[in-house]
Structures are given as C-alpha cells and as structure tokens.
Amino acid sequence: MAVQGWLERAGSKPGWWRGPNGVRVGWRAVMFLLLLVVFVFAEAGTVSRLSLPHPAAGVLLMPGFVVFNEALLLVPALLASLVMVRLEGRAFAVTCGVADARHTRRCAAGAAAGVALLGALALALLLSGHAHLALSGLGGRDIAAYAIIWAAVSLLIGAAEEFAFRGYLFQALGRGGVWPAIGVTSLLFGVVHYSDIGEGLIGVGNAVLAGGIFALLIRRTGSLWASIGLHGGWDYGENFLFGAHDSGQACAFTLLQLSPVGVPWLSGGDTGPEGSLLATGILMAAGLAILLWRKEASG
C-alpha cells in the first residue's frame, strides 16, 4: 500500500528528484502519464478479448460507440489521478480542479461558449463559400431525443479529455509554472490528435491551440468544469448541431450536415472544420478574449 503523502516529503538535500516541496512536479507529471498509459493498455487488452468492431473511416459514429470509446480514456484518467492524489495526500477535488461550488453554472456557461465558437466557425465557412449546409433528414421526436443524447455524449467527451490532459496533470505542472503547464499539456493534446483517423497538420495545430484555450480558461476560472463545458459545447456543435466531420469522422443522427467546399486548408476538407485556417483564427481570437477577460484565479 502506498504511503499517504509520500510525494510531499521534502528531500534532506534538494536534488533532481526531490526538492523542498517533495518530488518535483515534472516527475509527478511523468508518473501520472506512465500510470495513464499502463491503465489504458490494461483496459485495451481486456477490451480486445471482446472482439468488438471498430468503425472504419467514413462510417458514421453512433452515440453508444462514442460513449464506450471515451470511457476507455476517462476511467484510466480517473484511476491515475486517484493514485497520484493518494500519493500526495491531497483532496481529489482540489488537486484535480473540480472543487467548484458553481460547477453547474461554470459548465453550462462553458458549453454555451463552445457552441457559440463552433457556430461562429460554421458561419465563417458558409459566408466565405467554403461550406455547404443542409438538413440531415432527422425529424420529429428524433430531433429532441438525439439533441439530448448527443448533449450527454459531448459532455462525456469533454470530461474524459479534460480529466486526462488538464485535470491532475495540469494542476501538478502548474505548481512549477503556469505557462510551462499550458505548453506541455497543449502539445500532448496535439500529439494525441495526430493519431486520429483523417487528422491533418492544420487540425493538429488547432488541437494544440484548443488545448491552450482550455488551459487558459481553467487558469482564469480556477475550475475544470468550465473547460469541460467549453470542450463539450464545441463537440456538440460540431457533432450534432452541424453534423460536420470531427478528425475525419462524422456522427449519425445529426440535426444538420455541414459539408466542405473548396480547398482543404480553408474548408477543412475531410478533416472537418477543425482542419481549416479559419478555425485557427477563431481559436486565436478566443484565446485572446480569455487572456483579456479578467485577472487570473488565485492558486
């Protein structure tokens, strides 16, 4: 059994492993990532025995598959966080950035902002002639049903990816400096997106930018709930409201269908809106708005 507070013990003599505040933050980040990888591979090995089908490129993603896929990240992220929190002897909610009495309001506001940002991107693509918008054919009660289903799924996507990249990991690295923490977690976010089916270089760059925006929002609000909402709102707009490709794949049962028109570096091509330089501009504007919003949250 791990000894509670082991990571917090100061070294008798400061060195590369321990400092006056215990094990240095860089090594804590490495430990978390190693745990995350171990748990992901252990989980993947177990799931592989089930021989479940994986959708190929071009196949519409069903809500159930997305839930299953995101759970494969969320569960290991939570387990790795719990181990690290135990080793630090700290409270889970505080250490992972979810100790927020206004969590519902933060998450809802973030989600609204995420939908608005994706809507602004879709509008820019349409007005510039780099996208075509059509009804998907979904109607009647199905619209209401899948609007709710995809809202829940999108929040799960936000929760899984935010916990993995900007929960314990960002909070731990932030003790050694906010900007290095933003840089490291954003680059990792981009690297992981590079492995996605149909992801292009512009899309990877935009993933790095988005990671920075999520981290900045956490720093401004002091709450992971805000970034979970923003992340989920963006995905909800992309996956359900506009039915666009996301990293090369589209979802089933969407409200609209946003299709690319013209050169991929402006339309996003098969990657989706995130692969467009117009997305780059909107993300940069969003990042600047967060920077100018108000003073940083304490801690």
TrEMBL record:
CAAX prenyl protease 2/Lysostaphin resistance protein A-like domain span: 146-236
Signal peptide range in chain numbering: none
Gene Ontology MF terms: endopeptidase activity
Keywords linked to the UniProt accession: Membrane, Transmembrane, Transmembrane helix
TM stretches of this protein: 25-45, 65-87, 108-131, 143-165, 177-194, 200-218
GO term, biological process aspect, one: CAAX-box protein maturation
InterPro entries in UniProt: Rce1/LyrA-like_dom (IPR003675)
UniProt cross-references to Pfam families, sorted A to Z: Rce1-like
Name of the protein in its database record: CAAX prenyl protease 2/Lysostaphin resistance protein A-like domain-containing protein
